[in-house]
Amino acid sequence: MNFLYYILGNDLASYLAGTASPAQTSNMCNMLGGLLLFLAFVFVALYYKFLDRQSWNNMLSWILFLLVPAVINFIVVFVLLYADFRDGKMIDGNGDILHLSWTNFLGAGLLQFIYSALVFLVFSVIVNFFCKKRIMQSDCSTTPFKF
Predict the structure, then answer these.
(1) How many CB atoms lie within 10 A of CB 112?
(2) Is 13 exposed, middle or buried (0-12, 13-18, 19+ CB in 10 A)?
(3) CA 1 vs CA 15, 29, 37, 51: distances in Å
(4) What is d(CA 97, CA 80) in angstroms, rounded to the nearest whole number?
């Protein structure tokens, strides 16, 4: 959690942790991280098991499936933070507004986008290299790692 303070700044990282504002005391990092893991897992499962066709067995399709959950995560984070800012929930204990702007929310969304893409990549590696049994063998099982 400390690395978020370096990347996002004190105010936004504290707000996401639920310690900066009396109006928002729940830890949003757990919810956003759970959403990230869930969407990445769902899209990896969709790609490798449910939409398992030879026509999907190419790098462009894999990148599309990587980008969709990443974009969804970006939009959720940006909209959620901007809505809280617009509703006046981003205040400190004295009632003063936290020093945040839409660029901070854009940075948080981009961070979530990057994490989502990395998690999708890790799940793809797990499916491709560790689940190569007959059950998991599929038309798309070598994408994007065609060795």
Answers:
(1) 22
(2) buried
(3) 12, 9, 17, 36
(4) 17
Residues 29, 81: Cα–Cα separation, whole Å? 12
Quote the CA–CA distance of 114 and 51 in Å, as a whole number.
24
Q: How far is CA 9 from the centre of its chain?
A: 19
Tens of pLDDT, residue by residue over 83-132, are 988 988 888 878 788 888 889 999 999 999 999 999 999 998 888 777 65
Longest distance between any two alpha carbons in the chain, whole Å: 61
Q: Which of 53, 11, 16, 52 is nearest to 31 (CA)?
A: 16
Cα angle 8, 13, 25; round to 5 = 155
- Polymer length of the chain: 147
